[in-house]
Structure formats: structure tokens, C-alpha cells
Amino acid sequence: MNITLKEGIDWVGYVDWTVRDFHGYKTESGSTYNAYLIRDEKIAVIDAVKAPYAEKYLDHIRALVDLGKIDYIVCNHAEPDHSGGLPAAMAACPQAELVCNAKCKTALEKHYDTAGWKWHVIDDGDTLSLGKHTLTFINTPMVHWPESMFTYIPEEKLLFSMDAFGQHYASAFRFDDEEPLDVILHEAKTYYANIVMLYGRPTAQTMERAAALDIEMIAPSHGVIWRSHIKEVFAAYQNYVVCKPQPKVVVVYATMWHSTEKMANAILEGAQEYNVQALLFDVDTTHMTRIVTEVLDCATLAIGSPTLNNGIMPSMAGVLCYLQGLRPTNKVGFAFGSYGWSKRGGPNEVEATMKEMKVELMREPIRAQYVPTPKLLEECREAGRQMGKYAEQFVR
Ligand code: FEO
User: Fold this and answer.
1) Given this model, what pLDDT does residue 150 score?
2) Same domain, 229 and 371
3) What atom in ligand 1 is closest to the CA of residue 222?
4) Is the separation of the CB atoms in 35 and 54 below 8 Å?
5) Residue 90 to residue 72: CA distance in whole angstroms
6) 293 C-alpha vs ligand 1 centroid, how far in Å?
7) What is the pLDDT of residues 210-255, one digit of tens each?
8) Which of 75, 299, 308, 329 has a CA positioned 20 to 30 A from the CA of residue 138?
9) 211 lies in the same domain as 298
10) Angle at 197 between CA 139 and CA 12, to 5 degrees
11) Closest Cα to atom 1, ligand 1: which residue?
12) What residues make up the domain containing 273?
């Protein structure tokens, strides 16, 4: 495995092949916790790893340098998948100063026993010379936490981008040109949708700052390092930050006695009459990680639930909670579903959530009492046609 990014700069992280959950995100491809060692007149480590893998991380560093010679450990982000290994690292590296911004220091102090740590608190725009390399710190609040920052080395045109541009993707390789581009871009999209989508505006501001830098390599905290496809991942992020619609229709539903399922299928049939990508997801058979990833760039979204105990199905409630929290923007759609005797019921509750999500509603909810009639299914088909027609205007 090639771990060298640039002369004197090596990857010292951990590949987590088996992790399958990241606070609700189903990480089917595993992940990596990337950390980097810079050997110069001064020696610095960029970031750490999740706590259980701290010894592996320290072993990777030990293989290249005496831990007693490390001058700085930079923390770009306090979330425990990156900072969990810091207590072990600070204990093993007696000379090291922990380099971070003030918000990060506060967060680390609330996570760990930091008594005895030597701190080197920096601010946005500050620099730290290692000799031939200069670390430049750029605050990137809310990408993904308030204390998050990038570290940039101008002499190498190298950006350590922390969560940004990352992918939950375990690999034997470290670089983007060693893996199929469509696979890693899809993983980057899944990562953005499930981790960063809520923070589209700060991410757009961060992108502007990153675009002003001269960059040859982006080394994120998860997944492969971008050196050959920076333009592609930047372009993808430009679309992600505004949830740019594609010619794509997404129909998401839960069902009890198949009535809402019949409605969902009729909506899909209508949408398929147009030249769009039309996708159908049953929330009981599709994980919300996939659903949110497809919603990120859809143009139109129909969400359906039957009525259970005067409300929506619990499985749909979970998906809506996740979707609402991640706040996809630029969506047009409507709610649908069945009911029996409740005046409120599934479709109305779905619509209420869609309104809170600021989905532009194309129409009132389509409601079927008990079982949809042929006439009602035709109404569903027609609503699907409207979705397809609207989505068709967008170009890929
Ligand atoms: Fe990979 Fe926000 O932590």
C-alpha cells in the first residue's frame, strides 16, 4: 500500500473495513480514519483516529518516526471518530503540543481528560512553520461541527480537508486514481447527503475559500485522497451544496395492507412516461441512508404513508425525522396515502412534515379511504406525470 502523499508526508490512519453504522448512516463500504505525518525540521501529525484504533495509528507513526520527536498534533475536528485517539497520542508523545482553535480546545476539554496537555491555540489564518512546510489554518465552521477547520500546506498545494470531500469507504488504496471514479464519487455523494447536507450554506462558503487556494491534493479525514479528480469532486460539491435538482423523481412510501403501495406504484408509472430517472423506495426494505442520498439531487419527491393510530407508520416517521434533520432544499412534491376512519391520518401528517421541510407542494395530499379505486389510482398516475414533467426540465 502506497502511503506517501508527498515527500516527507505520509498517511498514518486506520482502515475500518467492518464499521456498518455511523450515527444512523449505514456505512456499507466501511470507512477510514485518515491521519497524516509530516516529517520536517519540526514533526507534526494531522488528526487522530477513532479511540479503539489508537494503538494501530501510533504503530503507523512509530514505523516512521520516534514518538518522542513529535512536536505538534493538529486537531482539525473534535468529533470522536478523529479525536478519540488523541488522549493515547498525547500520552505517547511527551513533547507534542495539541494544535487547534479555541472552540476545538473547549470541545476536547469536554470530551477528554486533557490535564497535562500542552496547547497551541491558533486562529483562522494563523500559520505554523515546520521548516520547509508551513501549516496554514482555515476555520470551516459547521463543516461539520463549529470548531472544524482545514489545514493547508501552500508549499505542497496540499489541503487537509477533514470531513469535507470525505467518503465512508474502506480501501486497500489511498488515492482517488486507484479506485473507480464513479464508485468514489458516489461514496462522496452518500457521505455529503448523510453527514453534511444540513450545512449546505457553510459548506458553500467553505468551498469559496477552498477555491481561492492553489490545490494539487485534497486529503480528507475519510476515504481516498483526491489528487487526480479534484475538479470532479469540486464540481460535484458545487451541486450538492444547493441540492441541485437532476431530472429525477423519487417516490418513498410505507404500506400496511398495500393500498399506499398501489398508490406509490401508480405515481411511479406516471413519472416513467417522461425522460427522467424514476425511483421507488419502500422504507421497510430500503435503508434511509440510500433514500436521503437519492433525495439530495431529485427534482420531485412524493412521500406516502398509510394511517396507523391516527398518525403515520413508525418506519416512515423515522425516515421523515432523518430527512427533516438533513434539510434537503430545492424540492417540489406532495404527500399521499391511505386512511380508514381517521380525520388526520398518514397523508396529512406526511404533508405537515414536508411543509416543515420547505418542500414546495405541487398539490394537496392524495388520500385513499381503505383501498384506492381505479379513479384514484388514475389521479396518482396523473400526479406522477406532473412530477415527471417538472423533473424533465432539468439537465444532467
Ligand atoms: Fe468524521 Fe464529523 O467526523
Assistant:
1) 97
2) no
3) 1
4) no
5) 10
6) 18
7) 899 999 999 999 999 999 999 999 999 999 999 999 999 999 999 9
8) 329
9) no
10) 55
11) 163
12) 248-391
**Pocket residues for ligand 1 (CB within 6 Å)?**
77, 79, 81-82, 144, 163, 221-222
Can you tell me the mean pLDDT for 285-304? Answer: 98
177 is catalytic: no
The catalytic position among 82, 168, 222, 229 is 222
Q: Which atom of ligand 1 is nearest to the CA of 221?
A: 1
Q: How far apart are CA 51 and CA 305, in angstroms?
A: 41
pLDDT band at 120 (very low <50, low <70, confident <90, very high): very high
Does residue 222 carry a catalytic annotation? Answer: yes
Could you report the per-residue pLDDT of 173-216, keeping only the tens digit for each? Answer: 999 999 999 999 999 999 999 999 999 999 999 999 889 999 99
Cα–Cα distance measured from residue 144 to residue 142, given in angstroms and rounded to the nearest whole number = 4
Q: Comparing C-alpha atoms, which of 187, 265, 272 is closest to residue 224?
A: 187
240, 259, 288: which is the final residue of a domain? 240
28 and 64 inside one domain = yes
Q: If you average pLDDT over every residue of the chain, what do you get? A: 97
Distance CA 219, CA 76 (A): 12
Task: Among 191, 223, 240, identify where a domain stops.
Answer: 240
Determine whether 79 is an active site residue: yes
**Same domain? 373 vs 295:** yes
User: Measuring from atom 3 of ligand 1, which residue has the nearest CA?
Assistant: 79
16 strand-pairing partners: 31
**396 is a domain residue:** no
Residue 274, domain CATH: 3.40.50.360
Q: Specify whether 189 is located in the same domain as 291.
A: no
Q: Give the position, in ligand 1's atom list, of the atom nearest the Cα of 163.
A: 1
CATH of residue 148's domain is: 3.60.15.10
pLDDT at 227: 98
| Structure confidence by residue, pLDDT tens digits, 64-79 | 999 999 999 999 999 9
Helix pair 374-392, 259-271: axis angle to 10 deg: 40
Give me the number of domains the chain comprises: 2
Q: Given the residues 10, 47, 71, 81, select the one marked as catalytic.
A: 81
User: Comparing 60-74, 112-126, 201-215, 291-305, which segment has the lowest mean pLDDT?
Assistant: 201-215
